[in-house]
Specification:
four-stranded antiparallel sheet; 4 helices
Length: 118
């Protein structure tokens, strides 16, 4: 559960589009398979905040804008935003590529489950 709210702005710190994560938001951080958590603990790495952002995108399916509007995102864009956020938190290149590849390969079921509830 998120204990302090935060906002991630797309593109750059003053970006008009953003993902807002409120206090109380439930996350499972990165869904890293248990045998791999020795290398990529979850929680416990620079991918934690990006993972929360990714969970919010998967659950909601949209980004917000400064004008109050919302824009629907596709799964591939949600995954790209996750990858970009990992770059911001300075996740090392190997970890970034492997974790990103993991969500591209394994995220479809979660994305579809949330879309069924829209």
């Amino acid at each position: 559960m998120v204990l302090a709210p935060f906002t991630y702005r797309l593109g750059h710190p003053a970006g008009a589009e953003f993902v807002r994560v409120p206090v109380g938001f439930l996350t499972d951080f990165a869904s890293i398979p248990r045998p791999l958590r020795t290398f990529w603990p979850s929680p416990g790495g620079p991918w934690d905040s990006p993972s929360v952002i990714h969970d919010a995108l998967y659950q909601r399916g949209y980004v917000e804008s400064a004008d109050g509007s919302r824009r629907i995102v596709e799964r591939s864009e949600a995954d790209t935003i996750f990858r970009d956020a990992m770059k911001v938190t300075k996740t090392n290149g190997v970890s970034l590529r492997l974790i990103y590849r993991g969500v591209r390969l394994g995220g479809r079921a979660a994305w579809n489950t949330y879309r069924e509830h829209d």
